[in-house]
Amino acid sequence: MAPRPEPVQQAEGRAGSGENLAGPGEDLAVARGRLAEAQGRVVRALVAGGEVPDGFDAARLRAQAASLVAKRRSIVARLRPDAAVAAGADLAAEFAAYARARGEPPPGYRADADGFAAWLRERGRLPDPPRRRTPWWRRRVP
């Protein structure tokens, strides 16, 4: 018979309550502020090309950041196939350059797709959208 594993000790306090966030003599609000700043540094490193925070493996964080850019690129290509076609074989490189230039992604995939299309248009890779013509029944005779 195999030996039974040791029971896992539970941390003091309720899970998620924030009771163990603060060190001895530290205000809970200050500890939460420190945690929020640390989380912000990790997010900036992942999505905005920020510095890798201390204690993190730089290679793994870069790999995860590249994965997030690839995910954005695939969704943008589905939402704006015209932009993907315009970028052609250079789609990965073009989108990576767009993501680096932008820093932080916009809120929402539709805005990201439209931003990438505008970025391609500024560089002459995507033609201007055709002007919408007024239907004949709405045109006024002078």
TrEMBL record:
<feature type="region of interest" description="Disordered">
    <location>
        <begin position="1"/>
        <end position="25"/>
    </location>
</feature>
<dbReference type="Pfam" id="PF26136">
    <property type="entry name" value="SCO6045_C"/>
</dbReference>
<protein>
    <recommendedName>
        <fullName>SCO6045-like C-terminal domain-containing protein</fullName>
    </recommendedName>
</protein>
<feature type="domain" description="SCO6045-like C-terminal">
    <location>
        <begin position="36"/>
        <end position="122"/>
    </location>
</feature>
<dbReference type="InterPro" id="IPR058711">
    <property type="entry name" value="SCO6045-like_C"/>
</dbReference>
